[in-house]
Amino acid sequence: MTDLHELPLRALAAALRDREVTPVEATAYFLSRIEAHADLGAFAEVTADAARERAASLGTPETDPPDLWGVPLADKDLTARAGVPTRYGSRVHADNVPDRSDPLALVLDDAGAISLGKTSTPEFGLTGFTETRIGPPARDPWDPANGAGGSSGGAAVAVAAGLLPAAPASDGGGSIRIPAATVGVVGLKPSRGRVPAGSGLDSPGGLAVAGAIGRSADDTAMLLDVLAAGPHPYATRAPGDGPFSEASRVLPGQLKLGVTTTSPWAETMDIRLDPGQKAALDEAIRVLDGAGHAIEDVPWEPTGYGEMFMTLWRASAARIAVPDERLGEVEPLTAWLIREGRALSADRLLTAYGAATAFERQTITAFGDFDAVLTPALALPPRPIGWFAQDDPERSFARQCEYAPYSSFVNVAGLPAITVPVLTDGHPVSVQIIGRPGGEALILHLAAHLERARGPLPWPPLERAR
Hints:
This protein has 466 residues and is an alpha/beta fold. 37% of the residues lie in helices and 12% in strands. It contains 16 helices and 11 strands. The chain has an 8-stranded mixed β-sheet with strand order 4-6-5-10-11-9-7-8, sandwiched between helices. Strands 1-3-2 form a 3-stranded mixed β-sheet. Helix 2 packs antiparallel against helix 3 and helix 11 crosses helix 13.
């Protein structure tokens, strides 16, 4: 049999269901890979004993087992799992062991998955890079001198290096798409309200949603189907029906696709698009134009975005469970955001919420003539460890915007988006596809089309050397 880490998620699930491999064997295999590549910083905690116990308890598959029966996965270290250290990337919670699991962990349990531990995240998931004071940085497997992006940096590294077949993750301003594009895998941020256990409806501005990272569009579609089917009726569902694994394969006919390199951050930040990132966008346009789709520039000129988003981000930090007297124990950027957030007036916060709603409507209207919109995934190639200037909060935030200026506005608009590698010579380079509200199936289809045109996704050098 092909090495287990080389199997697509669907094929691994089928092999487990058909008894070609047991959950115990699959768990042992991926635990050994995690140990062999611990230097990549993908994991904040490895729960080997609990994983082996869970795998052994599954026994043999029933006639119709759950979709992820026996599949090894892991929780992002922002998701609480009972009895497992959940540190949120922070020294303040170094000893935190919850006695209850978050809904997202329970959804994966119900689907039959086996948790191997916690993937690394920056402190409280606040940044687009995964470098903390509580553990090693998450490193790009293609060049370990570079960081992996964030905040789902550990999850993206684990998938890119074959330490996991796919990974659940979360995205409040690009936290799935930034690391997925950085390390060359597929990252899917669903519509607001799509995933019941991570709908975004309970986060400031509706920004943060749960989603999926995989090596292919089909991997992410399969994981999205599991997440979106979670038994939590309190969530408002986004429009559009699954299962997305099936809907994404339906041929859509000729589409009208938009393209933009405009970033709403350009009004306040120095945004410069690297030629390599532009080349990836040009390649995606070439492929989709060759498939007969109509492609046009999007007439979109957003204004007033920077102040509004910064207010929302400060507000999201304000409620982090760190008392004022302990702010000296968190990282400078975290402390700055928390202090700024707790100093916000009600008037300023409500004004920002109103501006966010207006921005959402304006963006959906501007994109409304198009079935989907293409943008660069990132503005710059992967950045060296330490580049984000963690000890200078304002400079750090500016550099995050310079690196990934096409991500956060999608969260404000509540739209689905996927990043997919289209160039693979040397280091993969990705593009972003943004869908209409509830349009996950179509952007998954377009991502799969780009994958077929690209050819097989190569493994990073650590695999070729082994």
